[in-house]
Amino acid sequence: SKVTSLGQLEMTWRSRVHFHPLLVRVLHKSRLRYYGKPEKKMDMPYQAYFEVADGSGMMSMVLWNSLCPEWYNSIKVGTVLLLEQYAIKTSYPFKTQPTPGDSQMKRYATIEISLNVRDPPTKISIIPEEMVKPEWGLPEVKYRFITRSELDALPNNHSCDVIGLVTFVGRVERTRKREHSEDFWLYRWAHAIDGTSDQPFILELFATSQPDVFEHIHPMTYLVCTQMRVVRDLTENPSSRVYLTTSNESQIFITGWHKGQPYTKDTKVKNFIQWTKTQSETDQMKKTVIGGYYPFPRPPNNFLKY
């Protein structure tokens, strides 16, 4: 069938009602958002954002309502989609923006693809990777992996991906989303090492839409976290250390979930795997810790400084 491109869509969307099918690759995936309110009677008030791209650039795609439970888990980073009977809307201006792995990629930020059960009823097809043809010109998923030795030089809020061997994982804690609100964020602290520094990555991992992974992070697992943000204390408090926190588009993977993920081809991931082969499992096991209370950033040693 006749396929259009994201670039053509941006130029012609105002003058069209029906659009040709789209062939795109998913580059980023946000956590699932629940927007239900007691007074509004909606069956499935869910929404999820994806950043999708073809040879012409990258655009946001929004999955709405009952399409979320049906499709959210099947659409992964790297998945190729054929979209038919979708709608085009003006972009929501306040949504979070992931940092693309390819800084040269053109971003279409004025409009977004809207996928709904009706008006019009969208048809989504997943194209198996072995059937994807090179002539479609779909971009590969690119990452921004860093090693622990590179972390100290990075600025606050810098976006990056990391891989490490988990040496500590804390208990699940919670914090209020807003003061006096009844909603909470769940999070846990973890440490991961990659052999490039004496210091571990300190990771603040908020519960993403991957409960099966979040609940099973344990010492000695290989942990991959994508779209993490650097947090450093800008007041230059010497007792505080730099750490990484999850963003709205972060994905977390542990041993058992890595097979077939696009990042397995990344050079820094391969280097890390080589390093783990030189380590003694028994020695590393002795250094691992699980659970307990983890105050971070640590308070100063005495009350006067506090």
UniProtKB/TrEMBL annotation:
Domain of life: Eukaryota
SUPFAM superfamilies linked to this entry: Nucleic acid-binding proteins
Gene Ontology MF term list: single-stranded DNA binding
PANTHER family for the chain: RPA-RELATED PROTEIN RADX
Protein name stated in the entry: RADX protein
Species whose genome carries this gene: Syrrhaptes paradoxus (Pallas's sandgrouse)
Lineage: Eukaryota, Metazoa, Chordata, Craniata, Vertebrata
